[in-house]
Amino acid sequence: MLSLLGSAGMVVALIGAGLLVARGIRASRNDHRANLAGAARVLLAGAVTSMAALVLALLTDDFSLVYTANHHSSATPFPFDVATAWGALEGSIVLWGLVLAGYTWFAFRRFRRSPDRLGAAALAVMGAVAIFFFGLMVTVANPFEVCVEALEAGCSRSSPWPFAAVDAPVNGPGPNPLLQNHFMMAVHPPVLYLGYVGMTVPFAYAIGALALGVAGPEWLRRSHRSTLVAWSFLTLGILLGGWWAYEVLSWGGYWAWDPVENASLMPWLVATAFLHSGIVQQRRGMLQAWNFILVISTFSLTILGTFLTRSGTINSVHSFTQSAIGPALLGFLVLTLAGSFVLFSTRADLVASSPRLESFVSREGAFLVNNLLLSVYAFIVLIGTTYPLVLEAFTGTQVGVGEPFFNRLAVPLSFLLLLVMGFGPVTPWRASAPGVVWRRVRNPAVVGLAAGVLTALLVSRNGWVASSITLGVFVLGTLVGLLIEQVGRRTAKTGETAAEATRKVVTGDGAFWAGQLSHAGVVLIAIGIAFAANLGTHAQVEMQPGESTVFEGYTITYESPFQQTLPGKTIVGARLSVTRGDQFVGLVEPSWNFFGAQSAVGTPDVLHRPDGDLYFTLDDLPEDAGDVVGFSFDTSPLIWVLWLGGLVTVVGGFLAMRARRSERRPAGERPTVDV
Amino acid sequence: MSERLRNILTVAVMLALAGVLVVLVATNPTSADRVESIGERIKCPVCQGESIANSPSQMAQDMMALVQERVEDGLSDEAIIDELLFSYSGAVLLDPPAGGSTLILWLAPVGALVVGAGVILWWRSHPGATPTDAGPPEHSRVRRLAPLLILGGAFAVIIVVAGFFLQERAGPASGVANLAGQDLDEVSNETMEAVVAANVDHPQVDGMRLALAERYYESGDFRSAFPHYLAVAESPDATDQQALTALIRLGWMAWEGNREVETAVGLLDQALAIDEDSDTARYLKAQVLWCGAGDTEQAGELLEEVLSDPELADDSRELIQSDLDAIRSGASCT
Questions:
Q1: Which pTM does this prediction carry?
Q2: Residue B94 and residue A619: Cβ atoms within 8 Å?
Q3: Hey, of B9, B13, B20, B94, which one would you mutate to test binding to chain A, going by the most A CBs within 10 A of its CB?
Q4: Can you give chain B as a three-state secondary structure string?
Q5: Among B49, B61, B123, whose Cβ lies nearest the Cβ of A402?
Q6: Tens digit of pLDDT for each residue in B131-185?
């Protein structure tokens, strides 16, 4: 029954996507009879129906679906049963389709308010992308196949035909234990997908503009704003992913340059470059061709990322052909790249003219350096991630490219970006007298260096730590200095109070100051990473119940082992009390979580302290009460600064989006491609 | 205070602070944890791209314990890494050396930076024709794209050529690690000689020595095979199986090449001391005793022992049976 409903949903969505393409193309040719509303509604309804059918199947333990039979268990509690809907390959494509249909709906609502050819063409492009993903769902990644040969827990043979004779197992093995160990797994993927799939919207406007032959400022305005939406979600998604890894995976880290992480970082870097270079085009009319390239690259990188993470290629080059989804995604990627760039090159004359860059000492000059660094950054991540795969595929030689490679290249590059971040916002547009920039950076530079020296004297003489403080204080100092300068000018002119003037200055250029808030967030991220990565300490100890050990000034006592049975999982752990001097700090319970018959998942416990986290992991399983058990203790100094910085960055992104939305179009300027 | 004086003072303070900072950082006394830093360079075989220092998996922890032990033994980083790469299949270096097949990986980012900067400089001096002085679109498009294509092409050519030349120079491989994960069949004898020579004291070199010796042996080049078999037989790090193979080969070569009966029997006895049930050693010893010493009695006993092995292959059984029959009938060795 649910198989039928879900299958119907995805077929309906596929039809809606097809209609959207056909009618979008007609509307983009000024055909007023084309009705896009029906197509957009059908697409959304189909996508919602298929996701609803899948979630319902999981909530009602309907094991007649292969997806439920293989990835769900009746013991899985809420919200992990719902999260299972995107915990495996087929379900993740359903989520992708739903998010894409949602974005298409928002793009359609915008189109309905002010219909124009560009909006229609963009909807057609989004329809085409939807055809691919719903096509994928109907053919090679069908989540609504029914089970026709049950195993004890799971399914061994399936049929895509919803009316096939069902042989449903009584229960399934349940989702991957790692995914049901923390509620964040229910939140992180949808947020990440809001970012990933959101990159389709700017791409659709770019392709629409190229196809219509109108490369004016309108596509850029829309692409830029929609990139802000997707970028903010992507930032949040990456942040949540890092936090999940830290809280759930017992290694005390948050980022390992793992291919799955890199897959999300690459579009983020290129989208970040576009957020900056888009401003240059809006303000100065420059970099038109480059902006097209960035938008197309961002979308292509999301497809590449999906290919890398969803085709199994990362585990082994050889698993690539085991599922048709790998070749399908790779084919779509090649098609997207080839199609976009052929279209782009046939329209090269459109994006020809641009004013001359008068001086490198200018805002646009700083943006150029920023774009160069971010592009090279993305390229490093791209080549480091794909090189082992390509090399093994063609020569059979295995090389590993991991943390040391990325850190060696990306860390210096990140510091360079921080430095540019200090200069960029205080550099005026067009040619500026070097004296202006110098006057704005000299005091922050002195303060930054002094802060760096103080850090080296009082905290640590580690070079990365001191540099992060130096550059961070420098960047923040330039921002504060700029604000003081503008507020001072305003109070002198209008006689307002400082608070009033500050409010007016910030709201007067909301997008700029929201961007600076994100910059401040990035500074905090850099400081958090530098401290946690370089000043963390680690110890491994073995203790019997009642024994104590001293770690970093804390006395840690192994009180007792414990066992706890909850719905869906059994927890076996150790209870530790932590004191500092006479002061009780906290009780922690690092543990192992057992999910049914599946392997156990080590679960750390963390004490959050103002100077950083104490991170506890249980290395062995305490079987008898008196057993000697191994523990790992870690410190992560100032790691909360990293999470705070991430949140600040995200908030800056959303504020910039709001500021741009409320920016009124300059009087008299109408979209160049209105019907 | 004049603006000029203020600037001079600011620069002086900046330089002084920067100088102090550099000195403080450069004289940082902390010593990096060697165990950790080695662990971070090795990919955990059972994880996705995680290093053994970061992975909580049992195998990674075992490997880290091994690293700890070796560091305490005072081995060099390279020796420890080589051992890990050899002993754990699937463990690969996460920090690939700039050379050979990974050269492009290191060159490409630098190339991208250079090309990117080049494009920006070029773009600045050719900021695009304004619409008024643009030629026919076709013409301007070609003009616009040509330099990009040339730059991109040049970049690709530089990378490929540099990679090609440096790869040639990088070989023959100088570390055992360079051959880990590679099919030894594709490695030339010369390369293997070079690797073995460069790693004489390396505990993991015996496997490669043996493989090389086997190649010489099979091609009949006993003279080249001999020193390698001998080194394996005498190596304290060789496994029993490696030592057994080496001793058996040495024994047979002593007889077959030099007709030294006593040496041959002595070596084969050493092999039997490692594995008293080795059929090959017993069979070859029987051959040497029979053909070299005419000791048909002991040779017959040995062959009978071999025949009593239920796992003996049928064709071997036939051959040995015919030898045994010949010995029993008093025939001389063929």
A1: 0.78
A2: no
A3: B94
A4: CCHHHHHHHHHHHHHHHHHHHHHHHHCCCCCCCHHHHHHCCEECCCCCCCECCCCCCHHHHHHHHHHHHHHHHCCCHHHHHHHHHHHCCCCCECCCCCCHHHHHHHHHHHHHHHHHHHHHHHHHHCCCCCHHHCCCHHHHHHHHHHHHHHHHHHHHHHHHHHHHHHHHHHCCCCCHHHHCCCCHHHCCHHHHHHHHHHCCCCCCHHHHHHHHHHHHHHCCCHHHHHHHHHHHHHCCCCCHHHHHHHHHHHHHHHHHHHCCHHHHHHHHHHHHHHCCCCHHHHHHHHHHHHHHHCCHHHHHHHHHHHHCCCCCCHHHHHHHHHHHHHHHCCCCCC
A5: B49
A6: 333 334 444 455 555 556 666 666 666 555 555 544 433 333 333 444 444 445 5
